[in-house]
Every structure is written in C-alpha cells, then in structure tokens.
Amino acid sequence: MNFKNSRRLLSCMRRAVEQYEMILEGDKIAVGLSGGKDSTALLCILKEFQRFYPKHFELCAITVDTGFEGMDFEPLRIFCEGLQIPYTVVKSDIAKVVFDVRKESNPCSLCARMRRGLLHDTAKMMGCNKLALGHHNDDVIVTFMMNLFNEGRIGCFSPVTYLSVKNLYMIRPFIYADEGDIRYFVNQNELPLVKSSCPEDKHTDREKFKKMIFEMDRENRGLKHRIFTAIEKSEIDGFKK
C-alpha cells in the first residue's frame, strides 16, 4: 500500500530515529495502536520507513480494548491485514476499574498506567524488544508545560525510555512531527480511525493545555518551536540538540 503525502512525516521520523538511534538491526517493534490519528499514522509511516531504512526491523500492532462501549476495532484489524502487519487486541476491564470500582477523580492517569502495563506485557509476549508510541512534537510541548504549571518541575517524557524490569524500550519516532501534518496525512489517506467513547475524551487537563498553548503560539509566533528548542538545548529527560 502506497500512502499519499508521507514525505514530510517520513523526514521527521528519520531525523528522530537517527538522532536517538531508535531502531537497530533486527528490532521487533510493537506499535501501540489506539485507533486515534497519531498512532494510526505512526503505524503507516513506520511501514513506509521499513521499505527503505537500511536497518531491517519487524512490525506488529497492539490495541488495548479498555472496555468502553461502542468501540469497534474491526476496521483496524482489516487495515493491519492489508498492510501485512500482525495485529492483537487485548481485552481489559480498565473502564470498569477506573470509573465504577475506583471512581477516580483523575481517571486519565490511572487509565494510562493500566494501558501501558498491558501494552508492555503484550509486546514482550509477542517477542518485541521495542514499543513505539505516537507522541508528536505538540505532545512534547504540552507535557513539558503541564509538568511546569501543575507540578512545578522541569520535565517531559523521553524520546527513548528503557524499562529494565521488562527489558523493553519505548520509542517515540514522531517527536519532530507536527500534529497538523499528522492530521493532514490521515485525512489525505482516509485512514480508519476508532473514535473513543470515554466520557473524559476532549475534556481532559491535557486538552485544556493544548488549547492554551495554541492561543499563546498564535499571539507569539514561533513560541512552540522555541519551547521545544529549549527542551533540546537543556537536554531535559534525554532530549538533545
């Protein structure tokens, strides 16, 4: 399958992969496929990347079904089959635990931890040594600002994280990719997406910060770029210039 308008995202991915040595010869990489635009685009671009990158690697995809009603992952299964990428859906009762049992005041945090745990375990079970996540450039900036505003600390997620307990690397090949470019790629290729039925979707603290930073960048052109550059120059959490 050939994807339209993939060159820009491929360039961003190559820069990240080479800058942080994210992919090595013989890697088996699982993509955490939520059904959202970011992870679906990541799977496609990694598949394209696999065609020409000199270091050979395998791909598979994993979806964690959190148990929210109305989410059908069959389109993702069909899509992965067309790409010849092994695909696994992991059933869980995360929605019930978070909202009914624990009645969490901050449900997103617990949900994310539980999903990551299942992703890690399933990736290892499938023989993978790396797990690729769809976090992009805007996510880097939003996470940094959330940590600064909410916790009073300088920090972010890392481009590459080694989980010694699992002997598994988490990689984020889209850290140089702009969210707008990802959205354009997904729309141009009419990729199958699965809309989240979580009641917190689009009402999270992260969404609030995204809107705030968008407004700040509109009033101060280049602000997002300057924040990201500062993260790199300061070598925060494994970033480097």
Describe what you observe in this structure:
By secondary structure, this protein is an alpha/beta fold. The protein has a single domain (7-238), classed as HUPs (Rossmann fold, 3-Layer(aba) Sandwich). It has helices at residues 7-20, 37-52, 74-83, 94-101, 107-125, 137-151, 179-189, 205-219, 223-233, and strands at residues 27-32, 57-65, 87-91, 130-132, 160-163, 168-171. The model has no long low-confidence stretch (mean pLDDT 93).
Features:
241 residues; globular; alpha/beta; Rossmann fold; 13% strand
Rg of Cα set: 18 Å
Number of helices: 9
Query: Order of strands across the biggest sheet?
Result: 3-2-1-4-6-5
Q: Quick one: CATH class?
A: Alpha Beta
What's the main sheet like? 6 strands, mixed
Categorize the overall geometry.
globular
- CATH homologous superfamily caption: HUPs
For the termini, the CA-CA separation is 34 Å
Percent helix among the residues? Answer: 40-55%
CATH topology: Rossmann fold
| CATH architecture assignment name | 3-Layer(aba) Sandwich
Number of strands: 6
Overall SS class: alpha/beta
The total tally of domains equals: 1
- In N-to-C order, the SSE pattern is HEHEHEHHEHEEHHH
Low-confidence stretches: none
Mean pLDDT: 93
